[in-house]
Amino acid sequence: MAKYANKVAVVTGAASGIGRSLAQELARRGARVVVADINGEGAAAVAREIEAAGGKASWVRLDVTDESEVAGLIHKTVADHGRIDFLFNNAGIGVGGEARDLTLAQWRRIVDVNLWGVIYGCHAAYPIMIRQGSGHIVNTASVAGLAPLPGEVCYATTKFAVVGLSTALRNEAAGLGVKVSVVCPGFIDTAIFETAEIAGADPKDILERLPRKFFATADQAAREILAGVSRNKDIIIVTLHGKLVVGLYRLSRPLWSAVNRIMMRDYRKIRKSAA
C-alpha cells in the first residue's frame, strides 16, 4: 500500500478492462489517479466510481494516437500535481487475421494505438521523470509479444515492439532513477475480444474457440500487475496460462512448432468458413 500512497498515476485506456481495474486498485492503495481514455464518458464514470469509494481521481478524454494530446496530458498532470510518479501506457486494441487478409489501414490503426501510443507516453513522461529523479513507466504488451501464435501477426508485431522498447528503455533508465516495466497478460476477460477486428474470419468463430476456463478477471490482473510493479519486475507475465505459454515457447521450440501447426490448421478452417 505504501508504494502507491499519495503517488500520482496516469492510466491510459482506463475506461474499461485492465485499465479500469488498475485505476480502481491504484486508488484503493492511496494513489491520485488520472483516468484517461478515448471514451470520455467511460473515463468520467470510472473517476466518479473511484471518488464515490473514497479515492482521488480525475479524468480526461485522450486519443493516444495524437502526440499533442498525450504530451498535453502528461504536462497538465505535472502542472496540477507537481509530479508524475507512475505512467501506465495501457491503451490498446486488437486486430487479428492472417497477413494476406490484412489491409494497410488495419496495420496503421493497430500500430498507431498499440505502439505509437506507448512511444508518445514514454517520450512525454521520461524526461520529466529524469528531472524528478524518480518515476515508473509501465507499458502494457501481451503474451503475444513473447510467444506469437497464428492469426495475430499485426498484434504480435506491436506487442513485440512494446516489449523491446520497454526492456531497452529500462536499461537506459536504470542509472537515472527511472524504472520501466512491461506487462504481458495472457487471457483476461475484457471487452478486447468482443471489439477486436478480425480480417478474413468471423470474430464469433474466434471467440467460441477461446479457452474461457483459463481467463483471469481484470481485477485479478490489476492486482498481479501492481504486485510486479512494486517489486520493479522487468517483465510482468500475468496469469498462469500466460506463464505456461511463454515457458513452452522458450523451452521447447519443437513442441511450440507443433502447437502452431495445430492452431494454424484450426484457424484455416475458420477462415474458409468465413470466405
List the helices and strands and how they pair.
Elements lengths: L7 E5 L4 H12 L3 E6 L2 H13 L3 E6 L5 H15 L4 E4 L5 E3 L6 H29 L3 E5 L12 H21 L5 E7 L6 H4 L1 E3 L3 H7 L8 H13 L4 E4 L1 H12 L1 H22 L1
Parallel strand pairs: 1-2, 1-4, 2-3, 4-6, 5-8, 6-7, 7-9
Helix pairs in contact: 1-2, 1-8, 3-4, 4-5
List its salient traits.
single chain, 275 residues, alpha/beta, globular
Helical element count?
10
What is the residue-averaged pLDDT? 91
- For the CA atoms, what is the radius of gyration? 18 Å
* Share of β-strand residues: 15-25%
Distance between the termini: 52 Å
List the secondary-structure elements in sequence, H or E: EHEHEHEEHEHEHEHHEHH
Give the strand tally: 9
Q: Structural class of the secondary structure composition? A: alpha/beta
**What's the arrangement of strands in the largest beta sheet?**
3-2-1-4-6-7-9
Unreliable stretches covering 5 or more consecutive residues: none
Shape: globular
Biggest sheet record = 7 strands, parallel
Helical residues, percent: 40-55%
How would you describe this structure to a colleague?
This protein is 54% helix and 16% strand. It has helices at 17-28, 40-52, 67-81, 104-132, 153-173, 192-195, 203-209, 218-230, 240-251, 253-274, and strands at residues 8-12, 32-37, 56-61, 86-89, 95-97, 136-140, 179-185, 197-199, 235-238. The model has no long low-confidence stretch (mean pLDDT 91). It starts with 7 loop residues before the first strand and ends with a helix. With 275 residues, the protein is α/β, with parallel strands linked by helices. Strands 3-2-1-4-6-7-9 form a seven-stranded parallel β-sheet, with helices on both faces. The protein has a two-stranded parallel ribbon with strand order 5-8. The longest helix has 29 residues, at 104-132.
